[in-house]
Amino acid sequence: MQMEVRNDGKLEISGYVNAIDRYSKELYGSKGKFIEKVAPRVFQRALEKARNVDMLLNHDVRRKLASIEEGTLALKEDNIGLHAKAVISDQEVIEEAKYGNLKGWSFGFRALSDSWQDDGSVAKRTLEDIDLMEVSLLTIEPAYIATSVQVRSEDVEQRCIRDKLNGKESDEEIAKQRSLVATKVWLLKNALLG
Q1: How far apart are CA 82 and CA 110, in angstroms?
Q2: H runs (alpha helix) in the chain
Q3: How many CB atoms lie within 10 A of CB 3?
Q4: pTM of the model
Q5: How far apart are CA 174 and CA 164, in angstroms?
Q6: Contact by Cβ (8 Å): 6, 66
Q7: Summary mean pLDDT of the chain
């Protein structure tokens, strides 16, 4: 991640939201523990069909930092992965950047097509087609090494480590939390699009 506070006080930030064809850290979902990767051209196809993609802070729809529509966010897939470049004027985020508190990137998506492979050790998921809902800057640890984050739900998926089971929350409580996150994201997205 490259960051520069410009003369006008805004933060210019760029880096890879996610690398293609590289497995994530262990994730947890309705099928149990798994790792996943994004197939090549998945992000490119998602960007071609997206009207707009927002950049958020920690997947919080109330903390929009930039967007393609406003011309403050540029996203593209290259041979490494999904690259983002943004200009941010949020003073809190600029302070977080100055103190080195930005940990990485993440993305929220709806899986349209995926494939699963199970070799006996851990299930492996490959995302083959997605709707890209948002990208996020993180102040928490990402799920993909050197790139992203995970919070899971049935429809909308995000990548942030706090979703990992810690023995204190039951599977049922986590499922309820995921469902609530998915509902909030869906409601907010549809309210913004409507």
Answers
A1: 16
A2: 42-49, 91-98, 171-193
A3: 16
A4: 0.73
A5: 9
A6: no
A7: 79
E runs forming strands in 20-94: 27-29, 32-38, 54-57, 60-67, 73-77, 81-88
Inter-residue contact 149 to 138 (CB < 8 Å): yes
Rounded distance, CA 144 to CA 19, Å? 8
3-state class of 94 per DSSP?
helix
The CA distance from 87 to 72, in Å, is: 5
Residue 102 in tokens = 């930005």
SS3 (DSSP) at 68: coil
Q: What would the two tokens of residue 116 be?
A: 């699963």
Pairing of β 54-57 and β 60-67: antiparallel
Helix, coil or strand: residue 103? coil
Is the pLDDT reported for residue 112 higher than 90? yes
Q: Please give the structure tokens belonging to residue 179.
A: 């469902």
Length reported for the chain = 194
